[in-house]
Design a protein that fits this description.
heterodimer; A: 99 residues; mainly alpha; 4 helices; rod-shaped; B: 167 residues; alpha+beta; Immunoglobulin-like; 2 domains; 49% strand; elongated
Chain lengths: 99, 167
């Protein structure tokens, strides 16, 4: 999963869970059934898990472009321009070398 | 969100947090329900009224209990426990409570009922204070919600009197 995919997965998870909670509470309160609320919410959690937990292809549409080894040898010290090219993901950049 | 385990953990913890929030809101929504229960009890017969060998008075009654507790039920109510207590005053104690009958109401459909019953539990006084005693019959109930705090209330019915003599 690439950086954009991780951000998308987190946002999807939060929006889907809150959305299902609102729907479940609304329906449960309207028809007066606590059980129905829990069932709808459980279904929502299951669906959210299926959508956001596996590493689906649409989370991998923005692969990182690493420099060629030859290019890296030519510039032994990372240049500031290389850093800024990926700097918009600075929030999670501490893990960048794991992927 | 970089690994399968991390995402699974995030979904689980966030889902449980939201579950706690909706349960809290469900509990709060109970406050919008205004309950107006009614109850009426008649003592249709004093079956027996004796002094036990140990000196305690004991009474057997036939009770006619009718109650409508449907308004106590909301979508967040699991069950209602209801019991009928005889309450009276003696010289030693300002309040004596003797439970005569109880029941569990599992659903709103059963919350309106009329039953004729003898007292399920002994109406015994610790002493011999019951002859000619004025007493109240109080219908207590405890509402047990699915989530949230239990609540209790009661209806006091006055003007009952035991006979002056054993029979």
């Amino acid at each position: 999963m690439d950086w954009q995919g991780q951000k998308l997965a987190e946002q999807l998870m939060q929006i889907l869970l809150v959305g299902f909670a609102v729907i479940a509470f609304g329906i449960g309160y309207t028809i007066g059934s606590f059980q129905m609320m829990l069932l709808i919410y459980a279904g929502g959690v299951l669906l959210t898990t299926l959508i956001t937990v596996p590493n689906w292809p649409f989370f991998n549409r923005h692969p990182l472009k690493w420099l060629d080894p030859i290019e890296a040898e030519r510039h032994p010290k990372p240049q500031p321009s290389v850093v800024t090219a990926t700097s918009k993901k600075t929030k999670t950049s501490s893990k960048s070398h794991q992927k | 969100m970089h690994s399968f385990g991390y995402r699974a953990n995030a979904v689980l913890t966030f889902a449980v947090t939201i579950l706690a929030v909706i349960c809290t809101i469900a509990s709060i929504s109970d406050n919008f329900n205004s309950a107006s229960p009614t109850a009426e009890v008649q003592v249709s017969n004093i079956n027996w009224f004796q002094k036990q060998p140990n000196g305690d008075d004991v009474v057997g009654l036939t009770l006619n209990i009718s109650a409508d507790l449907q308004s106590l039920f909301t979508w967040n109510t699991k069950q209602v426990f209801v019991f009928l207590a005889a309450e009276y005053e003696t010289q030693q104690n300002s309040l004596n409570q003797v439970s005569l009958w109880d029941g569990i109401i599992p659903a709103k459909e059963h919350a309106k009922f009329v039953i004729q019953t003898t007292n399920k539990y002994h109406f015994t006084d610790q002493g011999s204070n019951l002859r000619g005693k004025e007493f109240n019959l109080t219908l207590h109930w405890h509402v047990m919600p699915k989530t949230g705090k239990m609540s209790a209330d009661k209806i006091v019915m006055t003007g009952y009197r035991l006979p002056d003599r054993y029979r």
